[in-house]
Amino acid sequence: MSDLTVITHPDCAKYHPAEGHPERPERLAAAMRGIEQLDSVNMIEARPVESIDLARVHTPDYLQMIETIARKVVDTGQIQILDRDTHAAPGTLPAANLAAGAACQAVDHATGKQPNTAFAVVRPPGHHAESNKAMGFCYFNNIGVAAAYAKTKPSIQRVVICDFDVHHGNGSEEMFSDHPDVLFISSHQHPLYPGTGHGELPSADNIVNFSLPPGSGSNQFRDAWQHHLLPTIDQFKPDLILVSAGFDAHWRDPLAQLDLKDEDYYWIGHQLKKLSRTHCKGELVAALEGGYDLKALTDCTLAFAEGISSS
Ligand SMILES: [Zn+2]
Prior knowledge:
The protein is of the alpha/beta class. Helix content is 39%, strand content 16%. An 8-stranded parallel sheet has the order 2-1-5-10-9-6-7-8, with helices on both faces.
């Protein structure tokens, strides 16, 4: 059996936030074109998330509000506005349920009898969603839901969320700030949306932000991880590594200017996999976040998936 399990669902492509919106249905097929180039993958169909799993990181009021919005979308067939750039169209909330469910399934597959690597290739993304707020194209914080779910397993006490999406994962930081058993590690461009995560201002000791200026490129990105972020994970000795895998720091991406190349995503995947072998029996969970140039999304998904499957 392959060392890599991919969890996805065609319904993750069955919603369209708005004309010209960068978080568009074609992103799913683009990412899957990367996965299809791998020699061997264990493919699993995503299931909707359980409400108990959402409730560990999202507030009851927020979940109630999302349910009301979902009903309104079904009743009216109209798009509902949750935030400036975050809309609920027909199909959005079923896809959000599948995306968060896939992240939990990824935990089950990674931490099962055979330690494994599991990648939820889904949309919508999740890392901007806070405990009580949808924002930045995100509704449920998929990797946050997965991290809290993982900690219900007796063998998993300490987890790290590694986030190399070009945008700061403000939702993940907000959810886990001051949770000493969860380390949140992020590299991101600054200044850029959402404007949080500037390196000098972590909200708690378990939060490590490394901001990079526009135009940084491969060397500064790799230096940040090699000399600061990877050693911090190593010292933390996690029981599971979770990854917010966004590919919008690539040079082709229209939303940012960090200028990474395909091979940087192989590199970071390989480094994280090495750490998971040292501390977590090779168990690693990833969930797709951003990435808005379709060719870069295909190539980076392939490169990263090869990195996390490498020996
Ligand atoms: Zn992003």
